[in-house]
Amino acid sequence: MRVVLSHESALRYWLTKTSDEALPSPSACQSLALASANMRDIKQAELPFGFSRGQSLHVLVGERSAVRNQRSLQVHRWCGAIPLGTFYELSGSNLVSSPEFTFVQMAARRPLCEVVEIGDYLCGLFAISDRGRGYAGQREALTTPDAIARFLDGMPGGYGVKQARRALACIVPRTASPKEVMLCSMLVLPRSEGGRGIRHVVANQEVKIPERLWEFAGTDSFYCDVYVPEARGDVEYDSEQYHTGRFRLDHTQKRRNILEVAGIKTMSATPGQLSTFDNFSSFLWMLNKRFGLRERRLTDAQFFARQDLFEYFADPHRMLF
Description:
- There is one protein chain.
- Helix content is about 35%, strand content about 15%.
- The chain is α/β, with parallel strands linked by helices.
- The strands form four sheets. It has a four-stranded mixed beta sheet, sandwiched between helices.
- Strand 10, helix 9 and strand 11 form a beta-alpha-beta unit.
- About 35% of the residues are buried.
């Protein structure tokens, strides 16, 4: 028998992976026939983390398996297709849902904005803490939108696939922090969902700078935090942790000046501008003006959707798992 981690537990496993941890190998398993939800099997399994009533363990079983939830155990049943690459190997015969399958599982349980956020995290360049929030260091992306799309093609009609496809169009890969995820989501999501509705946004886009500035800049290119190609505009998140102090402020301003010379309009998103909905609304108005973007007046429903979306991302106590 084997234990198969899924849903929130699989998300916890993947999002807390740091750069110094080895990633598991893909499994050739395409069946849940041996998947167990027996507490004896679970306690004997060498799982990567513990579980409790406050943070349940989520496991996956096959169609005919008995599903009996307990306070510290959530059992899910999957009866759809299982394409190659659905699972990765853990210790012994135990498995964890792949990043792509985890995305599908969460898409079936969460609203669109949360599914987009989870996709950004899975395709992002950073890990979070075991508390389910907060920046915990850089790492390589766990998957890409293209890889997710190919996976979805292998399970047509699966539970959660329709919502996953809808969210996929709004995922911005290669974000480097939770605040960048917030900015990208607020810009990309449809107006009906509270977003700005910009169709194409790129995170950490490389931009070449004029050759005569290479020596001054110490490089031949910079990376823009949140880049809007249609406006040639860059939104930089200036955190208190990495953008304070005389040297860092000088570097930040020099970088901004060089980008402007290179024809890239720049905007700074500071913690204060993201602290309240009124402040963020003013920031978004300034961004539209600076980037030359037009936005129709919001309907009442769109206004309240934007307010709700902001409050969702601004909640300091919210956890992803």
